[in-house]
Amino acid sequence: MPTLSKTHLAIIALFFLSLIWGYNWVVMKEVMRYVDPFDFSALRTLFGAIALFIVIILRRRSLRIRAFGPTLLLGLLQTALFTAMIQWALVQGGAGKTAVLVYTMPFWLLPLSLFFLKETVTRMQWIAITVAMGGLLLIIEPWRTQPDAFSTFLGLSAALIWAISAVVAKKMRIGEGVDLLSLTAWQMLLGAIALCILAGILPSEPPQLTPYFYGALAYNAILATGLAWLLWLFILGHLPAGLAGLSTLLVPAVGVLSGWIELGERPSGAEGLGMLCTVTALGLISYSSYKARTNRRDAK
Protein backbone atom coordinates (compact mmCIF):
# COMPACT_ATOMS: atom_id res chain seq x y z
CA MET A 1 0.00 0.00 0.00
CA PRO A 2 1.55 3.36 -1.05
CA THR A 3 2.50 5.81 1.69
CA LEU A 4 0.87 9.24 1.56
CA SER A 5 3.26 12.17 1.22
CA LYS A 6 3.29 15.04 3.71
CA THR A 7 1.62 17.24 1.07
CA HIS A 8 -1.26 14.78 0.62
CA LEU A 9 -1.63 14.45 4.39
CA ALA A 10 -1.73 18.25 4.68
CA ILE A 11 -4.53 18.42 2.09
CA ILE A 12 -6.48 15.79 4.04
CA ALA A 13 -5.84 17.79 7.23
CA LEU A 14 -7.16 20.93 5.50
CA PHE A 15 -10.34 19.07 4.58
CA PHE A 16 -10.93 17.88 8.17
CA LEU A 17 -10.05 21.30 9.58
CA SER A 18 -12.67 22.91 7.34
CA LEU A 19 -15.26 20.36 8.48
CA ILE A 20 -14.45 20.99 12.16
CA TRP A 21 -14.55 24.78 11.93
CA GLY A 22 -17.46 24.85 9.48
CA TYR A 23 -19.73 22.55 11.50
CA ASN A 24 -18.93 24.48 14.67
CA TRP A 25 -21.28 27.24 13.48
CA VAL A 26 -24.17 24.79 13.95
CA VAL A 27 -22.80 23.73 17.35
CA MET A 28 -22.51 27.34 18.53
CA LYS A 29 -26.03 28.07 17.30
CA GLU A 30 -27.66 25.03 18.87
CA VAL A 31 -25.94 25.22 22.27
CA MET A 32 -27.67 28.52 23.04
CA ARG A 33 -30.82 26.58 23.79
CA TYR A 34 -29.03 25.69 27.03
CA VAL A 35 -26.72 28.61 27.86
CA ASP A 36 -26.44 32.40 27.61
CA PRO A 37 -24.26 33.50 24.64
CA PHE A 38 -21.80 35.44 26.80
CA ASP A 39 -21.51 32.61 29.32
CA PHE A 40 -20.74 30.16 26.53
CA SER A 41 -18.26 32.57 24.94
CA ALA A 42 -16.39 32.78 28.24
CA LEU A 43 -16.40 29.01 28.80
CA ARG A 44 -15.42 28.01 25.27
CA THR A 45 -12.49 30.43 25.13
CA LEU A 46 -11.29 29.51 28.63
CA PHE A 47 -11.27 25.78 27.91
CA GLY A 48 -9.92 26.47 24.43
CA ALA A 49 -6.97 28.36 25.94
CA ILE A 50 -6.32 25.45 28.32
CA ALA A 51 -6.32 23.08 25.33
CA LEU A 52 -3.78 25.27 23.52
CA PHE A 53 -1.46 25.38 26.53
CA ILE A 54 -1.63 21.57 26.68
CA VAL A 55 -0.61 21.52 22.99
CA ILE A 56 2.33 23.85 23.78
CA ILE A 57 3.48 21.57 26.62
CA LEU A 58 3.17 18.45 24.43
CA ARG A 59 5.23 20.17 21.72
CA ARG A 60 7.79 21.20 24.39
CA ARG A 61 7.57 24.87 23.50
CA SER A 62 8.22 27.78 25.84
CA LEU A 63 5.30 29.01 27.94
CA ARG A 64 6.82 32.47 28.34
CA ILE A 65 4.63 35.36 27.23
CA ARG A 66 6.21 38.03 25.02
CA ALA A 67 4.97 41.56 24.35
CA PHE A 68 2.30 41.51 27.07
CA GLY A 69 0.64 44.81 26.08
CA PRO A 70 0.05 43.96 22.40
CA THR A 71 -0.95 40.41 23.37
CA LEU A 72 -3.54 41.78 25.80
CA LEU A 73 -4.87 44.10 23.06
CA LEU A 74 -5.10 41.16 20.69
CA GLY A 75 -6.89 39.09 23.32
CA LEU A 76 -9.46 41.80 23.93
CA LEU A 77 -10.09 42.18 20.19
CA GLN A 78 -9.71 38.70 18.68
CA THR A 79 -10.95 36.60 21.58
CA ALA A 80 -13.18 38.72 23.81
CA LEU A 81 -14.89 41.11 21.38
CA PHE A 82 -14.86 38.87 18.31
CA THR A 83 -16.12 35.75 20.10
CA ALA A 84 -18.82 37.65 21.98
CA MET A 85 -20.04 39.27 18.76
CA ILE A 86 -20.33 36.05 16.74
CA GLN A 87 -22.07 34.23 19.59
CA TRP A 88 -24.47 37.16 20.04
CA ALA A 89 -25.09 37.28 16.29
CA LEU A 90 -26.14 33.62 16.36
CA VAL A 91 -28.95 34.37 18.83
CA GLN A 92 -31.14 35.59 15.93
CA GLY A 93 -28.98 34.92 12.87
CA GLY A 94 -28.72 31.64 11.00
CA ALA A 95 -25.53 29.59 11.38
CA GLY A 96 -24.75 29.57 7.65
CA LYS A 97 -25.51 33.24 7.03
CA THR A 98 -23.50 34.34 10.06
CA ALA A 99 -20.55 32.19 8.95
CA VAL A 100 -20.54 33.87 5.53
CA LEU A 101 -20.78 37.35 7.05
CA VAL A 102 -17.93 36.72 9.49
CA TYR A 103 -15.74 35.23 6.76
CA THR A 104 -15.89 38.49 4.82
CA MET A 105 -12.90 39.34 7.02
CA PRO A 106 -10.36 39.17 4.12
CA PHE A 107 -12.23 41.92 2.28
CA TRP A 108 -11.91 44.29 5.25
CA LEU A 109 -8.30 43.19 5.81
CA LEU A 110 -7.13 44.25 2.33
CA PRO A 111 -7.80 48.01 2.70
CA LEU A 112 -6.58 47.92 6.31
CA SER A 113 -3.33 46.29 5.14
CA LEU A 114 -3.02 48.95 2.44
CA PHE A 115 -3.24 51.82 4.95
CA PHE A 116 -1.58 50.37 8.06
CA LEU A 117 0.90 47.80 6.70
CA LYS A 118 1.67 49.54 3.40
CA GLU A 119 0.93 46.34 1.50
CA THR A 120 -0.05 46.40 -2.17
CA VAL A 121 -3.59 45.48 -3.20
CA THR A 122 -3.65 43.86 -6.64
CA ARG A 123 -6.21 44.41 -9.36
CA MET A 124 -7.71 40.95 -8.79
CA GLN A 125 -8.06 41.69 -5.08
CA TRP A 126 -9.95 44.91 -5.85
CA ILE A 127 -12.20 42.90 -8.19
CA ALA A 128 -12.77 40.40 -5.36
CA ILE A 129 -13.71 43.23 -2.97
CA THR A 130 -16.19 44.59 -5.54
CA VAL A 131 -17.77 41.14 -6.04
CA ALA A 132 -17.94 40.67 -2.26
CA MET A 133 -19.64 44.04 -1.74
CA GLY A 134 -22.25 43.08 -4.34
CA GLY A 135 -22.73 39.78 -2.53
CA LEU A 136 -23.13 41.54 0.81
CA LEU A 137 -25.84 43.81 -0.62
CA LEU A 138 -27.75 40.73 -1.78
CA ILE A 139 -27.33 39.03 1.62
CA ILE A 140 -28.36 42.10 3.62
CA GLU A 141 -31.16 43.15 1.21
CA PRO A 142 -31.35 46.75 2.53
CA TRP A 143 -34.46 47.32 0.39
CA ARG A 144 -36.38 44.93 2.67
CA THR A 145 -37.09 44.97 6.42
CA GLN A 146 -34.99 42.17 7.92
CA PRO A 147 -35.89 40.57 11.28
CA ASP A 148 -32.23 39.63 11.78
CA ALA A 149 -30.79 43.06 10.87
CA PHE A 150 -29.02 43.41 14.24
CA SER A 151 -27.53 39.94 13.86
CA THR A 152 -26.25 40.91 10.40
CA PHE A 153 -24.67 44.05 11.88
CA LEU A 154 -22.95 41.96 14.58
CA GLY A 155 -21.65 39.46 12.01
CA LEU A 156 -20.13 42.19 9.84
CA SER A 157 -18.74 43.99 12.88
CA ALA A 158 -17.11 40.74 14.01
CA ALA A 159 -15.50 40.41 10.57
CA LEU A 160 -14.09 43.94 10.88
CA ILE A 161 -12.78 43.25 14.41
CA TRP A 162 -11.15 40.04 13.11
CA ALA A 163 -9.45 42.04 10.33
CA ILE A 164 -8.19 44.66 12.81
CA SER A 165 -6.89 41.82 15.00
CA ALA A 166 -5.04 40.35 12.01
CA VAL A 167 -3.30 43.69 11.41
CA VAL A 168 -2.31 43.89 15.11
CA ALA A 169 -1.04 40.28 15.03
CA LYS A 170 0.94 40.87 11.85
CA LYS A 171 2.62 43.96 13.26
CA MET A 172 3.46 41.99 16.42
CA ARG A 173 5.02 39.12 14.50
CA ILE A 174 7.02 41.53 12.37
CA GLY A 175 8.27 43.54 15.32
CA GLU A 176 8.62 40.86 18.01
CA GLY A 177 9.13 37.54 16.21
CA VAL A 178 6.37 36.01 18.34
CA ASP A 179 5.61 32.28 18.00
CA LEU A 180 2.16 31.76 16.43
CA LEU A 181 0.98 29.03 18.81
CA SER A 182 2.20 30.81 21.95
CA LEU A 183 0.66 34.09 20.83
CA THR A 184 -2.68 32.40 20.13
CA ALA A 185 -2.75 30.64 23.50
CA TRP A 186 -1.88 33.73 25.55
CA GLN A 187 -4.22 36.10 23.74
CA MET A 188 -7.03 33.54 24.07
CA LEU A 189 -6.41 33.19 27.82
CA LEU A 190 -6.35 36.96 28.36
CA GLY A 191 -9.47 37.41 26.24
CA ALA A 192 -11.20 34.56 28.09
CA ILE A 193 -10.52 36.27 31.43
CA ALA A 194 -12.15 39.45 30.09
CA LEU A 195 -15.14 37.42 28.88
CA CYS A 196 -15.46 35.70 32.26
CA ILE A 197 -15.61 39.13 33.93
CA LEU A 198 -18.24 40.30 31.41
CA ALA A 199 -20.31 37.14 31.84
CA GLY A 200 -20.17 37.58 35.61
CA ILE A 201 -21.43 41.17 35.38
CA LEU A 202 -24.27 40.56 32.90
CA PRO A 203 -27.42 38.92 34.31
CA SER A 204 -28.19 35.48 32.90
CA GLU A 205 -29.81 32.17 33.73
CA PRO A 206 -27.47 29.36 34.86
CA PRO A 207 -26.52 26.96 32.03
CA GLN A 208 -28.66 23.85 31.61
CA LEU A 209 -26.12 21.07 32.16
CA THR A 210 -27.32 18.82 29.36
CA PRO A 211 -25.26 16.33 27.32
CA TYR A 212 -25.38 18.73 24.35
CA PHE A 213 -23.99 21.58 26.47
CA TYR A 214 -21.04 19.44 27.61
CA GLY A 215 -20.58 18.11 24.09
CA ALA A 216 -20.49 21.63 22.63
CA LEU A 217 -17.88 22.70 25.18
CA ALA A 218 -15.76 19.62 24.41
CA TYR A 219 -16.17 20.19 20.66
CA ASN A 220 -14.97 23.79 20.96
CA ALA A 221 -12.09 23.12 23.35
CA ILE A 222 -10.78 19.79 22.03
CA LEU A 223 -11.71 19.73 18.34
CA ALA A 224 -12.23 23.35 17.24
CA THR A 225 -9.27 24.66 19.27
CA GLY A 226 -6.72 22.04 20.34
CA LEU A 227 -6.88 19.59 17.41
CA ALA A 228 -7.71 22.33 14.88
CA TRP A 229 -4.59 24.32 15.74
CA LEU A 230 -2.41 21.22 15.50
CA LEU A 231 -3.88 20.57 12.05
CA TRP A 232 -3.42 24.23 11.06
CA LEU A 233 0.27 24.26 12.08
CA PHE A 234 0.83 21.00 10.17
CA ILE A 235 -0.92 22.49 7.11
CA LEU A 236 1.18 25.67 7.23
CA GLY A 237 4.33 23.55 7.42
CA HIS A 238 3.54 21.44 4.36
CA LEU A 239 1.34 23.49 2.03
CA PRO A 240 1.88 26.83 0.29
CA ALA A 241 0.24 29.63 2.28
CA GLY A 242 -2.13 30.42 -0.62
CA LEU A 243 -3.40 26.84 -0.70
CA ALA A 244 -3.63 26.73 3.10
CA GLY A 245 -5.77 29.86 2.87
CA LEU A 246 -8.47 27.82 1.12
CA SER A 247 -9.82 27.16 4.61
CA THR A 248 -11.33 30.66 4.45
CA LEU A 249 -13.26 29.45 1.41
CA LEU A 250 -14.28 26.02 2.69
CA VAL A 251 -15.29 26.87 6.27
CA PRO A 252 -18.25 29.17 5.44
CA ALA A 253 -19.33 26.75 2.70
CA VAL A 254 -19.44 23.92 5.27
CA GLY A 255 -21.28 26.25 7.67
CA VAL A 256 -23.96 27.06 5.09
CA LEU A 257 -24.36 23.40 4.09
CA SER A 258 -24.51 22.23 7.72
CA GLY A 259 -27.09 24.88 8.62
CA TRP A 260 -29.15 23.87 5.59
CA ILE A 261 -29.07 20.12 6.39
CA GLU A 262 -29.30 20.13 10.20
CA LEU A 263 -31.17 23.33 11.04
CA GLY A 264 -33.34 23.65 7.95
CA GLU A 265 -31.95 27.09 7.11
CA ARG A 266 -33.11 27.96 3.60
CA PRO A 267 -31.57 31.17 2.25
CA SER A 268 -33.76 33.32 0.02
CA GLY A 269 -32.88 33.65 -3.65
CA ALA A 270 -31.07 36.95 -3.05
CA GLU A 271 -29.25 35.58 0.02
CA GLY A 272 -28.18 32.45 -1.85
CA LEU A 273 -26.82 34.50 -4.77
CA GLY A 274 -25.09 36.85 -2.32
CA MET A 275 -23.44 33.92 -0.53
CA LEU A 276 -22.28 32.53 -3.87
CA CYS A 277 -20.77 35.92 -4.78
CA THR A 278 -19.01 36.11 -1.41
CA VAL A 279 -17.56 32.60 -1.66
CA THR A 280 -16.46 33.34 -5.26
CA ALA A 281 -14.72 36.50 -4.04
CA LEU A 282 -12.98 34.49 -1.30
CA GLY A 283 -11.79 32.12 -4.03
CA LEU A 284 -10.38 35.07 -6.00
CA ILE A 285 -8.56 36.30 -2.88
CA SER A 286 -7.04 32.85 -2.25
CA TYR A 287 -5.97 32.51 -5.90
CA SER A 288 -4.49 36.01 -5.92
CA SER A 289 -2.50 35.31 -2.74
CA TYR A 290 -1.26 32.01 -4.18
CA LYS A 291 -0.15 33.66 -7.45
CA ALA A 292 1.57 36.52 -5.63
CA ARG A 293 3.60 34.14 -3.47
CA THR A 294 4.44 31.96 -6.47
CA ASN A 295 5.69 34.98 -8.42
CA ARG A 296 7.82 36.16 -5.49
CA ARG A 297 9.34 32.69 -5.12
CA ASP A 298 10.09 32.44 -8.84
CA ALA A 299 11.70 35.89 -8.81
CA LYS A 300 14.26 34.79 -6.20
Counted beta strands: 0
How many distinct helices?
12
Average pLDDT, to the nearest integer? 85
* Percent of residues in helices: over 70%
> What oligomeric state is this?
single chain
Compute the gyration radius: what is it? 19 Å
Summed up, the domain count is 1
Shape: globular
Compute the separation of the termini in Å.
38 Å
**Sequence stretches where pLDDT stays below 50 over 5 or more residues:** none
What is the SS-derived class?
Answer: mainly alpha
Write structural notes for this entry.
With 300 residues, the protein is mostly helical. It has one domain (36-199, 220-295). It is built from 12 helices and no strands. It is globular and about 40 Å long. The N and C termini lie far apart (38 Å).
Record the SSE blueprint.
Elements: H1 6-30, H2 37-58, H3 68-92, H4 95-102, H5 105-116, H6 123-140, H7 149-176, H8 180-201, H9 211-238, H10 241-244, H11 247-263, H12 269-299
